Amino acid sequence: MTLFYLESVDSTQNYLKELVRTSNIQLPHAVVSNIQTDGIGSRGNAWQGLDGNLFLSFAIALKDLPSDLKIESSSIYFAYLLKETLRELNSEVWLKWPNDFYLDKFKIGGMITNIVKDVVICGVGLNLAIAPEGFSTLDISISREELLKKYFLNIEKKILWKQVFSKYKLEFYKNQNFFTHTNNLRISLEGASLESDGSVTINGKRIFSLR
Fold first, then answer.
1. Alpha-carbon gap, residue 15 to 23, rounded angstroms
2. What residues make up the domain containing 165?
3. 96 φ, ψ to 5°?
4. Domain for residue 211, yes or no?
5. Domain containing 130 — which CATH number?
6. If you ran DSSP here, which 8-state letter would residue 27 be given?
7. Where are the alpha helices (DSSP H) in the chain?
């Protein structure tokens, strides 16, 4: 993974999307910024770019993804790999469907995924050091560089989707007291069932991650 550092940027996700569109960059490629002024959160909301936190986007060619990974499963796949990386470092973080990082009942970060050309671009915001009101920070102390090194090593293993899904399915019960959003509606995850492609079925309706 080629890793490029920025001092400040509006959004690492927008920056890398534009780079993929307009340049012949070597993949996989990652961008990290010390400060992010206009980060993208869930449902198009802003993700506050407080100094000392992780602002990351990385791009991987679709042809280089695990052989059984479908595009609609990619957000959960890469978010779960980051969750597992943090768990290996003794964090108690868990993954709220489809791609939000939580400690207990407080959100500490999230991931969004876009497709540009034949490339998947994942953007990550994670509160390593400081959090706005109503959010929380990571429960372990780790440098941004060490975390990225371990995370990228896990990505490079190309663990199959079926292996990631089998583990995530065991933890899905943690979503029961939480909500998701679809078509601007807030929907309870209580009673939701997880499907093999990472979508959920709620009251007979199948919902896919749009992030």
1. 12
2. 2-173
3. -80, 135
4. no
5. 3.30.930.10
6. S
7. 12-22, 74-88, 144-156, 161-171
Tokens of 48: 């506050």
Parallel, antiparallel or unpaired: strands 29-36 and 2-9? parallel
CA angle 6, 89, 197 (to 5 degrees): 80
Q: Do 87 and 151 touch, CB atoms closer than 8 A?
A: no
Contact 99, 73 (CB under 8 A): no
Q: Is residue 185 in some structural domain?
A: no
SS3 173: helix
207 lies in some domain: no
Question: What's the whole-model pTM score?
Answer: 0.91
Per residue in 42-59, pLDDT (tens digit) is 544 455 556 789 999 999
Q: Which of 191, 194, 166, 195 is nearest to 179 (CA)?
A: 191
Helices 74-88 and 144-156, axial angle in degrees (round to 10)? 120
Q: Measured between alpha carbons, how far is residue 168 from residues 73, 81, 100, 160 in Å?
A: 12, 10, 13, 13
| pLDDT tens-place string over residues 60-83 | 999 999 999 999 899 999 999 999
